[in-house]
């Protein structure tokens, strides 16, 4: 799979690229519920690593034709 995010980049809330997976409120809900991609919380700052975002996105992949006879 082609990466949706740059592997070696850190993303912070407000980065436009994060809108691919959800808006700021959705990401906050997921963090509160222990869902969504892995993140770092440094003080009040939330940081997502590109490689974690790509791994999470790949895990969400659905192949509708898989398993059909």
TrEMBL record:
Superkingdom of origin organism: Bacteria
In Swiss-Prot or TrEMBL terms, this protein is called MerR family transcriptional regulator
């Amino acid at each position: 799979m082609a990466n949706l995010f740059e592997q070696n980049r850190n993303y912070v809330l407000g980065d436009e690229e994060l809108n691919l997976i959800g808006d700021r409120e959705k990401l906050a809900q997921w963090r509160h519920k222990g869902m969504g991609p892995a993140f770092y919380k440094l003080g009040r700052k939330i940081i997502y690593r590109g490689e974690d975002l790509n791994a999470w996105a790949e895990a969400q992949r659905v192949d509708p034709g898989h398993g059909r006879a």
